[in-house]
Please model this.
Amino acid sequence: MKKVAVVGVAQTKFSGPQEKTGVELFAEAATEAIEVSSLKPQDIKALFVGNALADFEEGQGMIQAYAAENIGCLYAPANRYEGACASASMAVRDAFMWVASGYYDIVLAGGVERAATMGTGLATRTFAMFSDARYEYPSGVTFPAVFAMLTYLYADTYKIPLQKLREQMARVSIQSYQHGSTNPKAQFYGKNADMTVEKVLGSFVVCTPLTLHDCCPFSDGAAAVVLASEEAAKKLTGKPVYITGTGQASCGTLSNQSDYLPRIRAREISSRQAYDMAGLKPSDIDICELHDCFSIASLIATESLGFFDFGTSGEAWERGEADIGGKIAINPSGGLKSKGHPIGATGAGQVYEVVRQLRGEVEPERQVPGAKTGMTDTLGGDGGTLVNLILERGW
Amino acid sequence: MEHKLIFKDYNEALLQNKLLGLKCRACGTITVPPKIACRHCTGSELEVVELKGSGKIRTFTTVNVASEGREDEVPYTIVMVELDEGPWLMGNLEGIDPQKASMELIGKYVAMGNKSYGGDKYSAGESARPVFQPVV
Model:
C-alpha cells in the first residue's frame, strides 16, 4: 500500500436551513479544497461523496454526479456513500483505499447534507430510517430515543445515579458549546458559551432523560478533502497530513447488539483496526473529533476508543481530562453538538478539523498545542456503521 | 439458501400475539427478529420456535418528539426487553403513565401483546410491534 496524504481541506459553515442547494454547498467546499491544494478540477481522478438523504431533502438522487459536473470534474467517476451519519467517513476511507492501492494519485472526498432544510418532522422520520425499519421503527423509535435508552442502560450498567450521570452529560454539552462558540464555521458560533448544568437539565425533554441541550441540531453543510499519494502530496504541500490508520465495521438491529450495549461493539472493532494499522495506541492520540450526536454518545465513544475506562468518562469530563490541556482533547471544533451535524458531511468535517489542528491553523482559543496525532470517530445509525481514521503530521 | 422465517410470517404471527424466533441447532442461540443466519454463530441450521413473549425490561425511554405522521402518538414509552429465552426485543410499554416512567421500570417483568403500526408512504405496508404490559 502507498502512503496517502490529506493535501487540502475545506468546509462550508454548518448551519440551520440554507438557501443554497446540496450541489452548491458541496461545490463550494470542493472547489475550495481543490484550490488550497494548488490543484485544478481536472487533476481530480475520482470523487467520493457522502450523502444520506438528498432524495428526501431536495428530491435529488445521484447527487455526486451533479456535484462532479458542477465543479468541472467532467466525466470523472463519482461515487455516493450512504452510511447514515458516517457517510462522509466511509467516503474518505474508500478514497484512501483507492489512492493507497495506487490506482488513483489524486482524489476528492467529502460530503453534503441539508438535514435542517427538511424541518424537525421529516428529519426525525428520515433519520429513523437508519433504525431497523421492519422490526424496530414500528415501536416509534427515533434517533434521540436510541441514545435515551442507552443513557438509562449506561446508568444501570455502571451503577451511576441518574442525576449524577445527567450532570456529567451536561458537562459534555457545556464543553462542546464553549469550543463551538469560538469556531466561525460552527452552527452555534458565538452562542451558548454561557451554558450551565441547570440550563441543560432544565431544557425541553426530547426523549427522557435527554433534553434539547443533550442533542445535536439538524444541520445543513458540506465539507471536502483532497487526498493524494505521497509522491503527489510532496509536490503540492509542505504540510501533508498522512492517513495512517483506518477502520470500519457494521452491525444490525439495535436489540441484537445486546451482548455489548451500552458499548457499541462495531466501534471497538473499527478503532482496533485503525490503531493496529497505524501502530498506535489510545494514549498516542492528541486530539479526537468523535461522534457526539448526543451527550451520552461522547461518554460511550471515549470508552470504546480506549481513552477512559468503562463507566468513568463522565468523571473525566468533570476533571477536564477530555478538554484541551487534558489527557485527550475531545471535539475542540465544538463537535456535532455545537459545530453542527449535516450527517452526510460530518465525517469530512471531522477530518477538516483534525487536519487544521495538526497544522496549527485553528483559532487560538481552541487550538490544541503541539497536536501531532489525531483521530476521527463517526457513527451511523444506532451503531450500524462505524468508521475511524487516524491522521498524523507528515513534516 | 432459504429463510426459515421471513418478515411476512413473523409479522402475521405477531398480529396473533405469537412471537416466533429461530433456534440454532449448532449453538442453541435464539434469534429474533428472524434472519438467515444465527445472530451468534452465523450458523444456518435454524428451526422456528414459539417464544413466551415475556421477560425483563432492560431499558426504556418516553418519547416526546415523534416522526412526521406519528405526532398523535406522543408521549409514548419504548422498551427493550430481555426475553426469558435470552434475546432482547424492542417494543412499546403500556399500562403505565408514560410521563411517570422512571428507572424503577428496569428489571420489571412484562408480558407481550401487540399493536399494528399502520405504516406510511415509506414503509411498504404495516408492521406489528410488540406491546408489553407489566405483570402484576
In short: The longest strand of chain A covers residues 220-229. The two ends of chain A are 20 Å apart (CA to CA). Chain A has a mean pLDDT of 98.
